[in-house]
Amino acid sequence: MKNVLFVASECTPFVKIGGLADVIGSLPRALNQTNKVEVRVILPLYKEIKENWYGKLSLQSTFLVPLGWRKQEGILYTLEHEGIIYYFISNDYYFSRNSVYGYYDDGERFIFFSQAVIESLPYLDFTPDVLHGHDWQAGITVALAKILQPLEKLSTVFTIHNIKYQGVMPHHAFANFFNLPLTHFGGLEWGEMLNCLKGGIFHADKITTVSPSYAEEIKNPLNSEGLHPLLLERSSDLVGVLNGIDTNEFNPMMDPYLFTNYRHSRIKKKENKVALQEKIGLPKNGDIPLFVMITRLVEQKGLHLLKHIFDELLQENIQFVLLGYGDTDFEDYFSKASKRYPDKFFAQFTFDEELARQIYAGGDFFVMPSQFEPCGLSQLISLQYKTVPIVRETGGLKDTILPFDEETGTGNGFSFSNYNAHDLLYVMRYALTIYHEPILWKKLLKNVNRSKFSWRHSANEYTNIYSAL
């Protein structure tokens, strides 16, 4: 059995900003269930975690963390939760803040975290065989594990969850935050900037990303955010492992947030739709097609396409529900649209877990026209709730959603390939025609019911990667 230490910046149930937290919250449990590895997780101790979990944390050790010309204190805590052991690195200067990200010194904060992880290794009651870093915030951890070799025969894996975010800083950050010979600067530099993601990619023994299609896409200049030469150079060490979801957590049979629990029952799903309509103030009608989106309101998610065809779409006999927050331009547009179409469109610009689950359960179609999507979890969750995805063929969306074919009866959703607003409108109108054809709709829902994306398959792929190191 191999010992694996996950290094990450967020993890449910402790702190969540995006899909990374869901992965780090679920994957270790699935890996441990294989009985081939033991996974533990190390995270920063943010203010939010301290406030909610401090009474359950056990002090493990205190130590000094070198950071350029100075030393900072690191405090190591531990906690066992639902069978997983978690470690937390505390430093109030860096992590006792109101938000997880978004500060001018985020680069310094996560370089400190990376250095602290390396310094904490002798104090863990656990000797990792594999250090597995996730996204740019852990890229420097992977680099330092290779450069400093703090443990004998320590192997490294680095996972790119979203190549758009790289942890880029001016090149003088190398002298400010590292005690390394200048010969190591090249392994951390890209485009004359210090690049934390590049550091992880360059130094890792194995590189993974979150879907097979995304692994291919990021070798292309159009999708690599400038890192394609490095990824092409390391392509033999790059593999796409499709994310899964926790099918116990996202289970309409047991979800406590739903108005009515169900498995495959279309009648009970319709009851959820009507209850949702009543809750949010849309006219109650179980037969009207309901399109839903739960998303960050950012360009990546295809909101420009939706804006372009939204008035035209809402001429159809449909309803549309949007939940999410983000760029003010999108919030303003959809806020005004909700006033123009009060009987057809509802938008809420916050995140509400209870309402999100009720939207998944009440919707007929889940709309996800992303410009790019490394894996995507929302389309997997929508399948669990028997809500048909409408997606653009990119990244993990392409790997998980097969377009419905009337002749063969295959497919678990609808998709379009070109990033074009009227291609989106066309496929949404086509989805409506299938909705109004009872025999075809029944076939499609049978395929949706058979679609399963648990972590089991992904966990087996990761254990094979660890074994091969």
Q: How does this model look, in words?
A:
This protein is 38% helix and 20% strand. It is built from 18 helices and 18 strands. It folds into 2 domains: 256 residues, Glycogen Phosphorylase B (Rossmann fold), CATH 3.40.50; 185 residues, Rossmann fold, CATH 3.40.50. The chain is of the alpha/beta class and 469 residues long. Helix 1 packs across helix 18, helix 10 crosses helix 13 and helix 11 packs parallel to helix 12.
Supply database-style keywords:
Rossmann fold; 38% helix; alpha/beta; 469 residues; single chain; 18 strands; 2 domains; six-stranded parallel beta sheet
Strand order of the largest sheet: 3-4-5-2-1-6-7-11-12
Taken from the alpha-carbon principal axes, the silhouette is globular
Q: Determine the number of helices (DSSP H or I, runs of at least 4 residues).
A: 18
**What is the CATH homologous superfamily assignment of the largest domain?**
Glycogen Phosphorylase B
The unreliable regions are: none
What name does CATH use for the topology of the largest domain?
A: Rossmann fold
In brief:
This protein has 469 residues and is an alpha/beta fold. The chain has 18 helices and 18 strands.
Topology:
Layout: E1 2-7, H1 19-32, E2 37-44, H2 47-53, E3 58-67, E4 70-81, E5 84-90, H3 92-95, H4 106-120, E6 130-134, H5 139-148, E7 155-160, E8 168-170, H6 173-177, E9 189-190, E10 193-195, H7 196-203, E11 206-209, H8 212-217, H9 228-233, E12 238-240, H10 266-280, E13 290-294, H11 303-313, E14 319-323, H12 328-340, E15 345-348, H13 353-362, E16 365-368, H14 378-384, E17 388-392, H15 395-400, E18 414-416, H16 421-435, H17 438-450, H18 456-468
Parallel strand pairs: 1-2, 1-6, 2-5, 6-7, 7-11, 11-12, 13-14, 13-16, 14-15, 16-17, 17-18
Antiparallel strand pairs: 3-4, 4-5, 8-10, 9-10
